[in-house]
Design brief:
The structure holds 2 protein chains of 2 kinds.
Chain A: H1 6-20, H2 26-42, H3 58-61, E1 89-93, E2 96-97, E3 111-115, H4 116-122, H5 124-131, H6 141-149, E4 154-158, E5 168-174, E6 182-191, E7 196-205, E8 212-221, E9 226-233, E10 240-249, E11 254-261, E12 266-275, E13 281-290, E14 295-304, E15 310-319, E16 324-333, E17 340-350, E18 356-365, E19 370-379, H7 383-391, H8 396-412, H9 418-433
Parallel strand pairs in A: 1-5, 4-6, 5-7, 6-8, 7-9, 8-10, 9-11, 10-12, 11-13, 12-14, 13-15, 14-16, 15-17, 16-18, 17-19
Antiparallel strand pairs in A: 1-2, 3-4
Helix pairs in contact in A: 2-6, 4-5, 7-8, 8-9
Chain B: H1 3-10, E1 24-26, H2 33-42, H3 47-61, E2 85-87, H4 102-110, E3 124-130, E4 133-137, H5 140-146, E5 149-152, H6 153-159, H7 161-167, H8 178-186, E6 191-195, E7 204-210, E8 221-226, E9 231-239, E10 246-249, E11 252-257, E12 262-269, E13 281-292, E14 298-305, E15 310-313, E16 316-319, E17 325-334, E18 339-342, E19 345-348, E20 354-363, E21 368-377, E22 385-394, E23 400-409, E24 415-424, H9 427-435, H10 440-456, H11 461-475
Parallel strand pairs in B: 3-7, 6-8, 7-9, 8-11, 9-12, 10-13, 11-13, 12-14, 13-15, 13-16, 14-17, 15-18, 16-19, 17-20, 18-21, 19-21, 20-22, 21-23, 22-24
Antiparallel strand pairs in B: 1-2, 3-4, 5-6
Helix pairs in contact in B: 2-3, 3-8, 6-7, 10-11
The chains are: A alpha/beta, B alpha/beta.
Chain lengths: 434, 480
Amino acid sequence: MNFSDVEFWKQAFTWRSSVLDGNEPTWLSKIRKLAFLNFLKQGLPHKKLEDWKYNDLNKLLLRDICLTGAEREGALSVLDRPNYVNSNCLVFVNGRYCPELSLRNEFSANINVYSFSEALKIIPSLMKFLFFKKTYQTKQAFTSLNTAFAREGYVLHISREVQLNLPIYILFIGDHVNNNSLMYTHNFILLEKGAKATVVEHFYDDASEPYMHSNFTEMYLLDNAVLTHYHLGDASLASCHLADWHVSQGKNSVFRSFSCALGSDFSRHDLHVQLDASGAQCDLSGLYHVKQTQELDYHTSINHVKPNCKSHEYYKGILNDSGHGIFNGKVTVYPNAQKSQTSQLNKNILLSDRAEIDTKPELKIYADDVKCTHGATVGQLSEDELFYLRARGIGEDVARRFLLKAFISDIVDTIDIAAFRDYMLNRMMRALEV
Amino acid sequence: MSNTLLKKMTRQAYPLGFTTAVESDTVRAGLDEEVIRLISRKKNEPSFLLTWRLNAYRHWQTMHEPSWSNLKLNPIDYQAISYYSAPKSKTDGPKTLQDIDPEILRAYNKLGISLEEQKHLSGVAVDAVFDSVSVWTTCKEILNEVGVIFCPFSEAVLQYPDLIKKYLGSVVPYRDNFFAALNSAVFSDGSFVYIPKGVACPIELSTYFRMNAANTGQFERTLIIAESGSSVSYLEGCSAPMRDNHQLHAAVVELIALDDAEIKYATVQNWYPGDEKGEGGVYNLVTKRGICRGKNSKISWTQIETGSAITWKYPSVILKGDNSVGEFYSVALTNNYQQADTGTKMIHIGKNTKSTIISKGISAGFAQNSYRGLVRVAPQASHARNYSQCDSLLLSDHCGAHTFPYIEVRNSSAKVEHEASTSTISDEQMFYFQQRGIDTENAISMIVNGFCKTVFSKLPMEFAVEAEKLLELSLEGCQG
C-alpha cells in the first residue's frame, strides 16, 4: 500500500477504531474521527497547493507503508543514550514509550511528565482539555492523520510559576525498524502562567530500511511562560520525517526554538506560531544540511494576532550533492496588531551544481505601525577565504570545513545547553565530512 | 499622524477622468468566434493572424481565471464587454492631423500630449492609441531616416507580416495565461517597434493609451524587437475616464533583445483607480515579458503604477543570452480601495547573467499592495547574480503590504540576495520635519519621494518630473 491511497487510509482507520474504541475514552475516539474526516476533506497534498509547490511529493506519497507493528524481532541495539543526556529523559522506541530506558527523577507535584498513554490514565481531564483545542482542524492533512492515529508521545505540564531548570530530553529512537513502518507520536507541552522549561527532541535510528515518522508537538504557553525547544532530526537517510509544531503564546510569553535537520531522505518541518496576546515573543532558528538526494523543507508561519509582539527568525542551510532545500517563512501581521516587530533571515550555501534551494520569505501585513524585515541569500564559500586558508598550508577539505563551521557558528552559539550543543555540532560536522 | 489630512489627500479627484464625445464604431458586447473574425476583418488581417487568434480563443475557453493572486476581484463577465471600439473616421485612416476628429486631438491636448509635430515634447515620438485603435503616430520622418519602424500594430501586420509572424507570441505565447490568451484572441491595436542592427534609436518612443468608450475593454499588444547592437527607450502612459463599472484592460507586451541590444521600457500607469469607495476603476491585468535572447543584451523595466482599481502585472525578463542583464524598478502606489499584486520574474538561463530588482510599494487608505517576485537560476546559469530589494511603506492602519518573493537556485556559483522591509512613517521622522517648519502634507510627500528616488532616477528625465507630480497627486490628502 502506498501513502497516496485514500482507500487504504479509510481501511486503516476502520481497523484502528475497531481495536482502540473502547480502550480509549469516547471523547478521544470522537476527536480522532473528526481529525480523520478533516484529513479526508483536505485530501492529500499535491503540487498545485502553494504549501507543497516545491516538494517532490513522489518521495512521500509513493512510499509503501504498513501500520502494523513497527519493530522486527530482536534485541534493541541502540541502547546507549547520547552522552549529553544527564537528566530527565523519556525514550520512545519505534514510536512506543520505553520506561526501562527512560530516566525519570521524582518531580514535584507541580510538574507532570508523562507518556501519552500514561497521561490518558492519570490526567484525563487535562488531555481532554488539550485535545479540545481543535488543532485537528488544521489545513495540513498530515497533522490531522497524526491526531487520528497517534497513540504515543509525551505530555509535559508545568504549573504556575514553576521553573524547571534542567532540560527534559525526549529521545525518539528507531530500532530494528520494520520495513515501511509508519510511526505516529503526538505530544503536548503546557506551561502555565510564569512557568519555565526546556525540552529537547532528538530523533535517531539504526535503520537501513525505509520507514516514516510523523511527530506532532502542540505547545501552549500561558502568560509570562518561557519555553525553549530544541530539535535534532538525525534519522538515517532511508527514513522520512514529518515534524509539526504548533505553538500558541499568551501575554509576554517567550518561545525559543532551535531545530537542526541532518537526516532523512525526505523531511518536512512545519512550525506554526500563534502570537495570541500582546507582548509575546518568539525566536526561531535552525540549521539544515542536505546531501545525496535528500529533500528537506522548513515551513514556518508566524501570526502576529495582537499588538506589541516580536518575532525573529534565522535559518541557515548547506546544500550538497543533489540535495534539495526548501525554506518558506510566512509572517502575517493582523489588522490592529500595531507595534509588531518581525525580522527574518535565511542564508544558504550551495556546494554542488546539482543541489537546489527554493526559499520564499513571505510577509503579509495588515497593520501600519510595524517594523518588518526579511532577507534571503544564496551563495557559496568565498574563493578568497579558501585561498587565505590554503596559503597557510591548510588542506582544501579542512579549509572548507573551517569555513562551513564558521558559517553556522553564530546560530550554534545560541544553544544554551553546552553538552547538547557540542553533540549537535559534532553530528553536523560529521555529516559535512562524508 | 493626523487622519484628517490623509483623508483630505485621498479625496482628490482623478484629473484625467473626463470623457470625450466622439462617434465611435463599437462592436456588440460579447465574445465568440464571430466577433474575432469581425475584428480581424475590420483590420484586413492576413489569414495567419486570424488562425492564431482563433487558436488563442479556443485555448482560452479551456482556461480558468487565475486565483492565486492576493487580489479580490469582482467576477468579470466576459460576455458583457465590447471587444472593439474605434473612433469613426471619415476616411480610411488619417493621412494628416486634419483628418483626425478634433475632439480626439482636444482630448490628447487635455492629457498634455500634443500630436502636432512642433509642439510635442522634443525628442519623443508618440503613438496615440484611443480605445482600440492607434489614431496618430508622430515623428515618423525622423525615425524613417534611421530605419526604425514605429507604427501601430495593425499597420505592422499589413506592412511587415514576416516580422510579426516570426516574433508574435514568441515571448508570451497565447497559452501563457488566461489574460494573455484572451488578449491574443481579441487584441485590437498597440505599438510595434523594430530597431535595425546597430541603430541607437535617436528619440524616445512613447505610446499613450486612452480608454474612452464605456463598457469596452482595451486589449493592446506591444512588440519591440531590438536587433543586434541596437538600443531603444520606450515609454507608455495610460488613462481612462471615470466610470462606475470596472473596465478591463488586458494587454500583452513582448520585448526581444538580440546580441548587445538594449531595451528600456518605462510605464507610467494611471488608469482610473475608482472612487474613494472603491466603485469603478480599471482592472489592469497585464502580461509583460522580455527576453534577452542575445549575448550582452539588456532589458530594463521601470514602472510607476498609481492608477487602476486592480493591478495584476509582472514585467519579467528571461535572461537567455550569456552576460545578459535584466532590471526591474517599480513604484506601486495604492490608495483608497485599490489593489495591486505586482512584481517581476527574473529567469536566469545564460552564464554570467545579472538581474536587479528594486520595488517600492506604498499603501494608503484601505488599499492592498503586494510584491510577488521570482528569481530562478537554472542549473546551467553559472555565475548568475541577483540583487533584490523590496520595501513597503504603509500610510494608514487599514491598508496592507505584502511580499511574496520566490527564490529558486540550482547553480552553486550563483549569488542571490533578497531583502525586504515594511514600515510606516515614524513619529520621529514627522517630528523632524515639523520641527523645521515643514507641514505634514509636504513632509509625507518628501518622504515618499525620497523612498522612491532610486526608481525615479531610472525614468527618462521628462517623465521623472511627471512621475513625481503624479505621485504627489495620488497621495494628496493621504496622510495618516
